[in-house]
Amino acid sequence: MSEIAVISAKSGKFRKDSSTSLLDIACEPCISIFNQYPHLRDDIDCVLFSTTSDIQYGSTILSEYLGIKSNISQRIDNLCNSGTNAIISGYSFIKAGLCSTVLVVGADLKNTQGRSLKWDISRGQFPFPVHWAALFAKSHMRRFGTTEEQMASVAVKNRNNAMKNPAAFHSSRITLEEVLGSKKIVDPIKLLDCSFVCDGASAIVMTNKDNAKEFTDIPVWIAGIGTCVSSASFAGISDDLSSLKSAKIAARRAYDMAKIRPRDLDIVELHDAFTIMEIISYEDLDLAEKGEGGKYVTHGDIAINPRGGLLGSGHPLGATGIAQTVEIVEQLMGKAEGRQVQTPHRLGLVHNLAAAGSSAAIIILGSEL
Amino acid sequence: MSEIAVISAKSGKFRKDSSTSLLDIACEPCISIFNQYPHLRDDIDCVLFSTTSDIQYGSTILSEYLGIKSNISQRIDNLCNSGTNAIISGYSFIKAGLCSTVLVVGADLKNTQGRSLKWDISRGQFPFPVHWAALFAKSHMRRFGTTEEQMASVAVKNRNNAMKNPAAFHSSRITLEEVLGSKKIVDPIKLLDCSFVCDGASAIVMTNKDNAKEFTDIPVWIAGIGTCVSSASFAGISDDLSSLKSAKIAARRAYDMAKIRPRDLDIVELHDAFTIMEIISYEDLDLAEKGEGGKYVTHGDIAINPRGGLLGSGHPLGATGIAQTVEIVEQLMGKAEGRQVQTPHRLGLVHNLAAAGSSAAIIILGSEL
Q: Which residues contact B301 (CB under 8 A, 6 or more apart)?
C-alpha cells in the first residue's frame, strides 16, 4: 500500500435544474465533512477542484469560500475522469512531500459543454456519446450474443441500488419492461440505457500515514493507481469495438501496483455511462471472461455499483470520479448504511472513463495497510 | 536536489491578434523540442496543459495533435500561476513513481477572461489588476520614498532585455522619458508600467535522474518548490500593501527545500506584471532589504528577468510560469545565446504570482545535483 489514505468522503445530493451556483454546490460535501470534523479544515494544505466548468482560479476561490488556507491550489480537468485525476494529483503531492492533507472536490452543472464531443472530427456528424455506445452495443451483441435484456438488467440493478443512496439523482425503481420499452435513442440504445448528466458535487480528504492513524481508526488506503490515454478521438479507442484499450491497460497497471488479482476485489464502482459500458467494463477489468459480460450482470459474484453507478446516481462530469471513490471509501469503512455490502470487504476499485473511453483512470483502495 | 530534471525547454513567439488557434499555438514550442530531439516524443508518458482557457479535455486533445501516447493527462488552471502549478504536478507525478517523463505545455490567448478579476467582490468596482498595482505603488512610495523613476527604470531594463529574446512580445527599446510620459492608467501607474496580456506558448520536458543523465550532459535539476495561497480576494493579500504574504511564505519554503540562501542565487525570473511588482518582489524574495527595492533596480547584483520578464516578453497567462522556467533552464544550460548572463551560474529562481498576488508559486532550479 502507498501509506496515503482517504480519511473522510461525502457526496451532496445529485439533482437537476438547480438554481444554486457551481461554487455553492461544490461547498455542500465539504461542509458536511467539516461539520463532522471541525478541526480538519485547519489541517488542509492543498485544495484540488475537479470540474469541466470554465471557472478560472476556481480552486482558490473555493478555498476562500471554505475558509481554507492552502499551499497548493489547482483546478483540474480531463473531462469525465477529472475526478480521479484530481485524486491522483493529491496522492502525488503528498507522496512528493509538498503537502500533507488534501481536499479534493469535484463539482459540475448539467449544462457543461462536455455533453457533446464536438472537437472530435473522427466522429463525423455524431458528437454525442450515445452514438459510440450504440456502435459498441451492436458489436458486442453480434460477436458475443449479448442481448438487449442483459443491457436493460444493468439499468434495473443500478437504479434499484440508487434507491438506497440518498445522494442519487434517481430514486424510483424501474422494471426490465420499462427499460426495454423506453424511447429508442440510437438503436439499440434506449433512454433508460443512458446515464443523465446532472448537477452534483463530491469531496474527499486524503492524508499521509501518520495523520491518518491519528485521525481515524478506519482509514482507507490507496493501494493502486493506473492511468492510460489511448487517444482523444474515437478513431483510437478500440481495435474491435468491444473493449476499451485505455481501460484494459490502466486496470493492469493498477492491479500491478496494488499487487492484487481482479478476483481479490470485493466491490467495484465502474463507469456505466451506458448499460453496455458496464458489460464491457466487466471484461476490461478482468472480472468476466471476454464475451461473458452480458451473463455477468446477473451472475457476478462481487458488488458492482452499489451506490447506483452513473445510471442510478447521475453523472455530474467533474464530480463522478470522486463520487465513485466516496462510495468505495464508505463501503470499506463500513459506513454505507442501507447500501452496505457483504463483510468482510477489504478491497475496492474505481473505474473512471472520459470522452468515450479514450482515457481511463483506475484507483484501487484497501481497508488494510 | 530532488533528482528530477528539466531536460528540454522552449518558448514559441509571443504575439497578439493571432489568427492561430490555442491548440496550434500550444504545439509550437513542443514541435521545436521534438525537432531537436525526435525520440523524446516516444518517451513522454504524461502531458500537462496549463491554460486559463475553457478547452475541456485540452491536454488529451493536445496529446493527440502531438502524436503522444500518455498515461496521465490533465488541464491545469490556477490563473497566472497555472504554469508553475503544472510543473509542480509533473514533478510530483515523477516523484510518486506514476510516470517518468512529463511534457508540460502552457498556452493562452490574449482574450482570456482572466484579464479581469470579476469574481472578487472585495475589489468593488475595480476588477482590473492595475487598480491594486496602483495601491501597492502609492503605499511603497509613501512609506519608503520609492519613485516613479525607479518604477520606470524597471520597464526600461526589462524591455531592453527583451530585445535579446526572440520569443518576446516587445522588440523595441524604450527610454525612461517614454515610460514616464506614457498614458496614465491609474495614478501612479502608466501604460508602460504594465505588462501586456498576449498570445503565447512555452513547454518543458522533465524526467527522472536516470533518464536525464542518459539524455543530456546538462540537465537542470529542480532544487526547491514553495507554494502559498493567502486568499482569493484582494482583502487577504497583504497586511501593509507593500509586500505579498503569499510570495514571502512560498519563497521561504522554496529556500528551505533547496537548502540555499537568497544570496546564493545567480539569476531570477520574477513576476513583473507591473513595474512596482518587480520592486516589491525583490523584497519579498529577500534579495533586497524591506523598503530598498526601488534602489535595487539599478544597484542589484544578480540578473533579474534577463528574457525581459512579463513587461518585455508579454503575459500569456497560462504560459507565463513555464516561459519563466524556460529562461532559467536555458541560462543554467548556457544556451541563452545573446541573453546569456555571467558565468558561473548555478542557481536560478522562478517567482510566479496569480490574481493580484493572492497566490504564489516559487521554483528553484540548479545546474548541479
A: none
Nearest CB to A78; choose among B74, B113, B225: B74
Residues 85-114 of B with CB under 8 A from A: 85, 88-89, 91-93, 95-98, 112-114
Q: Select from 3.60.20.10, 3.40.470.10, 3.40.47.10, 3.20.10.10 the CATH code of A4-111+198-219.
A: 3.40.47.10
CA distance B147 to chain A (A): 33
pLDDT surpasses 60 at B136? yes
Mapped to the 3 state alphabet, what secondary structure does B183-252 carry?
A: CEEECCEEHHHECCCCEEEEEEEEEEHHHHHHHCCCCEEEEEEEEEECCCCHHHCCCCCCCCHHHHHHHH
Residue B242 · residue B146 · CB < 8 Å: no
Max distance between CA atoms of chain A, in angstroms, equals 56
CATH, range B4-113+198-219: 3.40.47.10
Cis upstream peptide for A127 (omega within 30°): no
Task: Name the DSSP letter for residue A167.
Answer: T
Cell of A43: 489541517
Pairing relationship of beta strands A347-354 and A359-366 according to DSSP bridges:
antiparallel
Find the helix packing angle between A148-162 and A275-284, rounded to 10°: 100
> Considering only alpha carbons, which residue of chain A is nearest residue B77?
A75
Selected for mutation to probe chain B from A61, A84, A116, A229 (highest B CB count within 10 Å) is: A229
User: Which residue would you say has higher pLDDT here, A166 or A18?
Assistant: A166
Residue B335: pLDDT band (50, 70, 90) is very high
Q: Which of A27, A92, A103, A108 to mutate to test the interface with B (most CBs of B within 10 A)?
A: A92
Quick one: closest CA in B to A356, which residue? B57
For chain A, domain boundaries: 4-111+198-219, 126-192+221-366
In whole angstroms, what separates CA B355 from the centre of its chain? 13
Residue B51 C-alpha, separation from nearest chain A C-alpha, in angstroms: 9
Q: Percent of chain A at pLDDT above 70? A: 99
Mean pLDDT, to the nearest integer, of B106-130?
84
Q: How far is CA A69 from CA A43, A334, B230, in A?
A: 9, 31, 6
Equal fold, A4-111+198-219 vs A126-192+221-366: yes
Q: Does A50 touch chain B (CB under 8 A)?
A: no
User: Contact at 8 Å (CB) between B192 and B310?
Assistant: no
A77–B57: do the CB atoms touch at under 8 Å?
yes
Fold topology of A126-192+221-366: Peroxisomal Thiolase; Chain A, domain 1 (3.40.47)
- Complex-level ipTM: 0.97
Q: How open is the CA angle B148-B151-B153, to the nearest 5 degrees?
A: 110
Is A343 a residue whose pLDDT tops 70? Answer: no
Please name the member of A52, A78, A97 whose beta carbon is closest to the beta carbon of B60: A78
Mean pLDDT of A96-110: 97
Asked if residues B65 and A121 have their Cβ atoms less than 8 Å apart, the reply is: no
Write down the architecture of domain B121-191+221-366 according to CATH: 3-Layer(aba) Sandwich (3.40)
A184-243 residues touching B, CB cutoff 8 A = 225, 227-233, 236
Residue B294 and residue B154: Cα distance in Å, rounded?
Answer: 9
Query: How far apart (Å, rounded) are the C-alpha atoms in residues A9 and A87?
Result: 12
